[in-house]
Amino acid sequence: MPLLEIENLSVDFETRAGGLFRAVDRVSLKVEPREIVSVVGESGSGKSVAMLAVMGLLPKTARVTADRLAFEGENLLGLTPAARRKLVGKDIAMIFQEPMSSLNPCFTVGFQIGEALATHLGMGRAARRARAIELLEQVGIPSPESRLSAFPHQLSGGMSQRVMIAMAIACSPKLLIADEPSTALDVTIQAQILDLLVRLRDEKDMALVLITHDMGVVAETAERVVVQYAGRQVEEATTVDLFRDPHHPYTAALLAALPERATEKRLPAIPGVVPGQWDRLEGCMFAPRCDFATPLCSTTRPSRAAPELGYALCHTPLVAGRPTERTARREELPA
Q1: DSSP states along 217-276
Q2: Is 42 exposed, middle or buried (0-12, 13-18, 19+ CB in 10 A)?
Q3: pLDDT (mean) for 151-155
């Protein structure tokens, strides 16, 4: 049984005008135990929103629907708020994108780590302190005893990120979601944080969902990759297959922009921006920025390609870098 199952997850937000804005559009994902899956895409592609929906941390203005949203076979959408709170932070944990704003500035590091231990494991004060020191040691923070009494503003960005990781793994979760864990950190600290996450996965037998826009991070850590664009899942493949032969034009454009793949002095870039609330097409969202777009792309929503074509959400998926008419079986999206 997959650890996490997501089938056709959609998230809509109520707007001030009274309408709905779809931030996540029919995303599907399965995560196996101990697997590292990376969710990739530009800002605005719905990566974080989809995972916050799994955590149950979206605001009241969000409407979450899914054919299936399950953790260890249990329907997450059917849980009561109290049952959801028992699960989140214990079996499913998340490292948020901004550690400096995610930590409460009014409480010490030791208090914030101990709060999760008291809530989910019922530990006493002495046990919480001992466990907090152990966790800070695990994430590589020197002099952990003295750091327990430190406030967030007394920590560097890298140190704050390590504290966030310590809080997330405090109750030995089965699934850890890391939202841009290396953002705003220098290159050396980025590598240390990513190495730490992979090591913790191995030591604690937990699955890891890594949200990022950095394809270099994906190549170094992930076993499987899901590519999102404008709220839609446009491709899914193993990391090796994705880097070797991308099938969606957006994936190919992301990889072409990597410095190590550049063949000219000027790095190639994807023109335009991710569509917003008022400029979304009926057809393929990527059509205005795609080098291979046809009139059909702007008017008709594409169906998914077969697994050997990375489930690419494209009318004519790429093969060896060039578009081709589909010969593989189509998998039509539900209405």
Answers
A1: HHHHH-SEEEEEETTEEEEEEEHHHHHHS--SHHHHHHHHTSGGG--SSSPP---S----
A2: middle
A3: 92
pLDDT digits (tens, 9 = 90+) for 243-272: 999 999 999 999 988 888 777 778 888 888
Query: What span, in angstroms and rounded, lies between the C-alpha atoms of 314 and 298?
Result: 11
DSSP state letters, 77-131: GGS-HHHHHHHBTTTEEEE-S-HHHHS-TTS-HHHHHHHHHHHHH---HHHHHHH
Amino acid letter at 230? A
200 has a pLDDT exceeding 80: yes
What is the pLDDT, as a whole number, of residue 171? Answer: 92
- Using alpha carbons only, give the angle 299, 302, 306 rounded to the nearest 5 degrees: 165
> For residue 150, what are its two tokens?
């430190």
For 209, phi then psi, to 5°, come to -105, 115
Beta bridge pairs of residue 75: 70
Query: What percent of the chain is modeled with pLDDT above 90?
Result: 62
Kindly state the helix (H) or strand (E) to which residue 137 belongs, with its residue range: helix 125-138
Q: Which residue has the higher pLDDT, 314 or 323?
A: 314
